[in-house]
Amino acid sequence: MNDAAAPSPARPSSTTRVLTALVALPLVVAATWAGGYAFAAFVVAICVLAQAEFYVLCRAAGTNPMTRLGLVAGGLLAARAIWPPAETLGIAVVVAALCTVPFRDERSHPVLDLAATAGGIVYPTLLLAMLLPLRLDAARAFDGDALARGGEGFWLTMAVMTLVFATDTVAYYTGRAFGKHPLAPKVSPKKTVEGSIGGALGAVAAAAAFKASGVLPSVPWGAMLLAALAAGIVSQLGDLAESRLKRAAGVKDSGHLLPGHGGFLDRFDAMLVAVPLAYVVFALWLGW
């Protein structure tokens, strides 16, 4: 996410960013429309890639997470919404990781290493994996089949993701136009309070656009706007949290797999906190 207090020169990677987005966006839309196992595979893949980047940050910060076991456990637990046995298998892998602690290199710090390993399973994997129950539960409630393609399940999932992107975009331009008061100067000096407010309002506007379009007749206006406001606020905090982690690790980007965007953790840092909160709003309001 970006938010600036004043205009800055265009980055050399701006064209690359656009080209990457033009390739990635159709994949996101197609996987979300397909739903079911195709969407599950897509989400789990993103979760594991983001988790791998998190472990790279941990190593840069001086810890030594159990990367292989952590990734296997994270991938399994991320898939539990569509394949329940994955939860049992994931827990078994976590137990296996614990059992390796007595045999780790004496130079390692078992407390920090174990915490880093568990942290990668929770952040970003389990948080970002909430995209899957959001898609499945919405399809089950609105379309009569958790594995249904398209339908309101597709539109609600796309809406939640769009709320995050709208927050990012509106925050950036609002910050450029009106930003005067730094939001978190020690973490991200260019982000401003004005931009943050604009981003939250941008999310609400995006939610209103989805409701007004008629593609989500089963979702009440109140639930949609509340989810938008919540997502618009916490998504910016998620971005700042990842920025803080990168500063602690002494790196600019979490990875380089998305040209012009950095890594998967860079791209989904806001979504991994916004999606779970939006899911909670819809689940409580709609009784999922």
Runs with pLDDT <50, length 5+?
Answer: 1-12
The pLDDT mean sits at: 92
Number of H- or I-type helical stretches: 11
Helix content, binned percent:
over 70%
How many angstroms separate the termini? 31 Å
Task: Outline the biggest β-sheet.
Answer: 2 strands, antiparallel
Name the helix and strand elements from N-terminus to C-terminus, one letter apiece: HHHHHHHEEHHHH
Structural class: mainly alpha
Work out the count of structural domains.
2
Q: How much of the sequence is in beta strands?
A: under 5%
Task: List the strand order in the largest sheet.
Answer: 1-2
Give the overall silhouette: globular
Q: Give a count of the beta strands, DSSP E runs of length 2 or more.
A: 2
Features:
288 residues, mainly alpha, 2 domains, two-stranded antiparallel sheet, 11 helices, globular, disordered N terminus
How would you describe what is shown here?
By secondary structure, this protein is mainly alpha-helical. It has 2 domains: 176 residues, no CATH class; 93 residues, no CATH class. It is 71% helix and 3% strand. The chain contains 11 helices and 2 strands. A two-stranded antiparallel ribbon has the order 1-2. Helix 1 packs across helix 2, helix 2 packs antiparallel against helix 5 and helix 8 runs antiparallel to helix 9. The longest helix is centred in the C-terminal third of the chain and has 29 residues. The N terminus is likely disordered.
